[in-house]
Design goal:
Elements (H helix, E strand, L loop, with lengths): L3 H12 L14 H56 L6 H8 L15
Helix pairs in contact: 2-3
Length: about 110
């Protein structure tokens, strides 16, 4: 558990728009981010209980297929290249930039149907 000063520092960062709690994206304070993260986690757990473990896995698989269909095979592969570079310390984008790997993010933007 964070000390009072650590919580104050995290709250200040959250008020500046940083995400300081995993899953707390969009919260304007530390407390708001904590509540968002808890609610999102609980929502996922509830859905898993409704579908069962196998159904929940299938749902994720279908989501991946849908995304592949939206951006095409080439875009999906490009997105995978970036994801494959990510580590616990750095995002795939950060590593790609550091190592000079060219990632064309335009390939994995959702195509318009027009």
């Amino acid at each position: 558990m964070a000390s009072g000063q650590e919580r104050a520092d995290l709250d200040e960062k959250a008020r500046r728009g940083e995400t300081v709690v995993p899953g707390g994206t969009g919260g304007k304070s530390l407390e708001a981010q904590e509540h968002l993260a808890e609610g999102r986690s609980r929502g996922g757990q509830t859905r898993r209980e409704q579908l069962g473990t196998e159904g929940y896995k299938e749902l994720g698989h279908k989501g991946g297929e849908t995304r592949r269909d939206q951006i095409g095979i080439e875009g999906y592969q490009e997105m995978g290249r970036k994801g494959g570079l990510s580590t616990m310390e750095k995002s795939g984008g950060e590593r790609a930039e550091e190592e000079g790997v060219d990632i064309d993010e335009s390939k994995y933007k959702t195509r318009s149907s027009a």
